[in-house]
Specification:
Helices cover 37% and strands 15% of the residues. By secondary structure, the protein is of the alpha/beta class. The protein folds into 2 domains: 10-188, Cobalamin-binding domain (Rossmann fold); 199-493, pyruvate-formate lyase- activating enzyme.
């Protein structure tokens, strides 16, 4: 006879592994689970967390004193173990790994606490689902009769695949906490007395689940009114909601005072929207405290919102990592993407940020590469324009996300099966199926961009968009694709 959990309100939350060709801890925390923990606690539940991606996991540190390798601002590489490549990825000439704590440590953590009444697992990128499936299998092996609920990004974008293949007992797509609480109540025979109706009503995340933190992350708003053709924000968070700016500032202040955290990353997709009512009050509250904070924006900022006054406030409050959404300098593509940014808008934002005291080497603009139909020349021109603005380029590979317009184009142009294995959403796939932009092209652009960024770090004036050192020209000669017309054209452009 199967044993019953000792405590009917004992819940185990899991942040599973990443399985991919590459992964890096760039201010990554399962913020949804931390919010959920606070809500569950207010409804009388005891919550335990196993975060497979915690680089400060005590078992990881005990088994390898060199872990974790902490870089500037608290970020750093994950522990990884190479895995056999799944069949759909077999032809990709790169090593495939599981990132996060070793599987043996996960098994140990499962045994550390009492048997849970329920297990709740989150998910992120659709093509990271093998890590989700493995966690579910290990939990079911240990506790065959424990009910597992699966939510998160993967389940929201690929609910059918999750229901058919994950092994979870219940798959809950979407971001509304009410259906989840109702499901928990049904399964446990409990009653949730407190259900937040709006994101604004959410309590602070349960950071106490982490004994050691190198940084913290924030979400001061959910959703984005823009409808960029490559982004699924509107599917994950329909509409747009904000939290109280004073409360967000206080959250930062409390973590600094009680945990000595200095580095904070914003997860917002539209942080600067309605600036007068949202970001300005938040920054004013932080500036008045005069704390030595380092604030980061790994998600691209809406450049057109960065006026001189806002740039000055960002500088005073402690923003260090500033990344601007740009994507492409091609005017036609900008219009197709919704005209969120123009070349003139990016240049003006950079000028305002520099006027506030930022140096070009402190600023980055995202450029997308690998979009369906995109040419090598478009990517090169976009990098050139960013360089002319005097800031660094942050290259981002396109990943087709179900429910976006670029997904529809990828289906049409690449012959991608809409019901294909989500592993094929991986951003490493598409240079191998595109006729316009190959893996060799992307590698060449990445090398060139890295060199230009390094020159900017050194203060070399190569801002006319044509500067390439002798060493870089030699690099391109070695990494060329041969004598075909496309390669010759590309070399002329460089």
């Amino acid at each position: 006879m199967a044993s019953k959990p000792k405590y009917p309100r004992n819940l185990l939350l899991i942040n599973p592994w990443i399985t991919d060709f590459a992964a890096f801890d760039l201010w990554s925390k399962p913020l949804g689970l931390l919010y959920l923990t606070s809500i569950l606690r207010q409804n009388g539940h005891f919550v335990r967390l196993i975060d497979c991606m915690d680089r400060n996991d005590p078992l990881l540190k005990a088994s390898n004193p060199k872990e974790p390798k902490v870089k500037r601002y608290g970020i750093g590489p994950y522990h990884k173990e190479e895995l056999p490549k799944p069949a759909p990825l077999m032809n990709i000439p790169r090593r495939y790994s599981r990132y996060g704590i070793p599987e043996a440590h996960f098994r140990t953590h499962l045994s550390e606490g009492d048997k849970p009444a329920l297990v709740l697992i989150t998910s992120m990128m659709t093509y990271w689902y093998p890590g989700v499936f493995r966690a579910i299998k290990l939990i079911k092996t240990k506790w065959p009769d424990v009910t597992i609920l699966l939510g998160g990004v993967y389940t929201t974008l690929c609910p059918t695949h999750a229901k058919e293949h994950s092994g979870a007992d219940f798959v809950l797509p979407g971001n509304d906490v009410r259906p989840l609480l109702e499901r928990i109540d049904d399964l446990l025979g409990t009653r949730s007395e407190w259900v937040p109706e709006r994101f604004r009503d959410f309590p602070s995340p349960a950071w106490d689940l982490y004994p050691k933190l190198d940084y913290a992350v924030l979400l001061t708003s959910r959703g984005c009114p823009s409808r960029c053709t490559f982004c699924a924000s509107h599917r994950l968070f329909p509409g747009f909601e904000t939290r109280d700016p004073e409360a967000c500032a206080q959250e930062i202040v409390d973590l600094y005072r009680h945990r000595r955290i200095r580095d904070f990353a914003f997860y917002d997709d539209a942080l600067l929207l309605n600036a007068e009512q949202h970001i300005f009050p938040m920054l004013d509250a932080l500036i008045s405290r005069r704390l030595p904070l380092r604030l980061h924006t790994p998600n691209g900022l809406h450049a057109k919102a960065i006026m001189p006054e806002l740039a000055g406030h960002m500088r005073q409050a402690g923003f260090r990592t500033i990344r601007l959404s740009f994507e492409s300098s091609d005017l036609r593509r900008q219009r197709e993407m919704g005209a969120k940014i123009t070349n003139e808008g990016l240049a003006a934002a950079v000028e305002n940020l520099k006027g506030a005291g930022y140096q070009g080497k402190e600023l980055e603009a995202y450029v997308l590469m690998g979009l369906p139909g995109q040419t090598l020349e478009e990517v090169i021109s976009s990098v050139r324009f960013v360089t002319q603005c005097g800031v660094k380029t942050k290259l981002a590979r396109f990943s087709p996300i179900p429910g976006t317009r670029e997904w529809d184009r990828a289906v049409e142009m690449y012959g991608l099966d809409p019901q294909a294995d989500p592993l094929l959403h991986n951003n490493s796939i598409h240079p191998f199926v595109s006729k316009n932009l190959t893996e060799a092209d992307l590698g060449k652009v990445a090398l060139w961009t890295r060199w230009i960024n390094q020159e900017l770090d050194l203060g070399v004036n190569g801002m006319d968009g044509a500067f390439v050192s002798k060493g870089m020209r030699e690099t391109f000669r070695k990494h060329g694709r041969g004598g075909d017309a496309a390669s010759s054209s590309s070399r002329r452009n460089f």
